[in-house]
């Protein structure tokens, strides 16, 4: 998985992942009106509107970014119909050649983790038949339950060429309440970083990076620099650029000398660009996907300064 991701980053010359975190307030009126006409103002209508919205966004960006990161919470809140929109979004993104990072942040005891792993990055069996339900190349996990909670996913990474991004230092303002605690002379996030690096050693790809990556928020550049030193073979998934305030200037320390090692996420900053300047003045509401494309190209150019 990690070699495929690196190949896509190199092909697009763009270490960006577009977060597919739809909200009804982002969806243009014409899409919502059609959904409400067909299904009333129901969770089903919201889900149908999300799928239509996502497909247009994917059409707008699929050739200029390597990956998308659908955030499951946005879909799950609408129940079964929402999850169908999630599943259909994954499939459409894969059809368009994108790598897919499912932001599902799961964590549980081994026997339950096996079910999550089968469903999300493996296959589920119904008697002698087996099915791929969620078309994801990698998923996010919470490491709080320890290594036995991660093991089932590691097996599937090996068997199905999949990957993980494990929470190490999250972007939210209060992440330090737990992640910065002192544990025997080091910070908890450093200890977790070392553990993730260790877990990843058996899954190093041809390019020298592991299929077991880490989530490291763009809003914590000092901590990221420490982690970069602690875990040189671990790819970082970096949320926090754009809507959460981080800029390209904060991001140099997230990358290795080879120009690889990090992929930067922006969700609201791209998919809701049509509601913000300068894009709002340039594009009509119906052209929201063109606004997203331009915002993604602007982000690509912004990130170039890291490598100059
Ligand atoms: O530490 C973390 C881990 C995950 N996220 C997720 O990334 C996106 C960020 O969205 P923006 O609109 O670009 O702020 C969202 O899905 C979060 O759940 C994170 O922000 N920080």
UniProtKB/TrEMBL annotation:
Pathway: Pyrimidine metabolism; UMP biosynthesis via de novo pathway; UMP from orotate: step 2/2. The active site is at 105 (proton donor). It comes from the Bacteria. CDD domains: OMP_decarboxylase_like. The keyword Lyase applies. It catalyses: orotidine 5'-phosphate + H(+) = UMP + CO2. Transmembrane segments: none annotated. GO terms for biological process: 'de novo' pyrimidine nucleobase biosynthetic process; 'de novo' UMP biosynthetic process. Keywords: Decarboxylase, Lyase, Pyrimidine biosynthesis. One of its GO terms (molecular function) is orotidine-5'-phosphate decarboxylase activity. Gene3D superfamilies: Aldolase class I. Pfam families: OMPdecase. Its EC number is 4.1.1.23. PANTHER family: OROTIDINE 5'-PHOSPHATE DECARBOXYLASE. Belongs to the OMP decarboxylase family. Type 2 subfamily. This is Orotidine 5'-phosphate decarboxylase. It comes from Clostridium aceticum. The gene is pyrF.
